[in-house]
DNA sequence: GCCACCGGTGGC
DNA sequence: GCCACCGGTGGC
């Protein structure tokens, strides 16, 4: 029931680095490597290499990797997920493949490069993707051919947001998938031609103000979007414990049964609960003492500095 | 010292 | 619940 039947694009990632060759992200460990996977795109135009699908045979641990989101319409049957969680603690998944669903037959088609994928995604709503579209790189493909990939439990799928503008020429949009159990599924970063990494619209705007040359060359805020895909696997992302409520209802016991194991899988200690209260339920006042004082100074002012709606940032102007 | 990654909050 | 933002910091 979710938003599935609408074709858009998605990617999948997978944590198993054993995968292949080309992406080899880090094969060993360093999480930083995954970066390399994205690098490939970096190589400007080399369209020849691509596709990083993972090799199921190589598994050892099946850590699903997030892949580009696609529109999947088939109902989410993720029961098949072998739980990737517990084991391999920190293998960061990386995007393993980009796939887009045909608006006609609903089969998933792998997209050869990230750039091509971004190009398709940019106008997916106005220009739906069809198997025939893939003829650009697969001359004879049609809806009669079997799907390139399907949602089995071997990968982590995530649905991407449609119509995200392609990054400006020379810039790169990086999607970093976070580990399971994190508070967010992923982060988007833009890397300027200078190598500067920008992680929010605020930072982009500031950067452009400091480097007017980009603006003069046509770079605009509408070319940026920090929207992240949504994982199909429920509980991949840790849910936030009901805001303040928790402290207010300190006495409202948290029965273990009520708590989703997964959610608490993390080794994190949750000090609040313990510190918070011996036995008497304090009033609903956030105790400054126990609190790490993490308040963020709210300095950010007006939000309308840039006017661009990420969702519909297609300014075809 | 840097920075990629994670945590977590404010605001809707 | 989701999204945007950004502080903190472990690991290099």
Automatic annotation (TrEMBL):
Transmembrane segment boundaries: none
Gene3D superfamilies associated with the record: 3.30.40.100, Methyl-cpg-binding Protein 2, Chain A
Cited CDD domains: MeCP2_MBD
Residue stretches of biased makeup (Acidic residues): 32-41
Transport among keywords: no
Keywords: DNA-binding, Metal-binding, Nucleus, Transcription, Transcription regulation, Zinc, Zinc-finger
Record-linked Pfam families: MBD, zf-CW
Polar residues bias spans: 1-21
Protein name, UniProt field: Methyl-CpG-binding domain-containing protein 2
Species: Morus notabilis
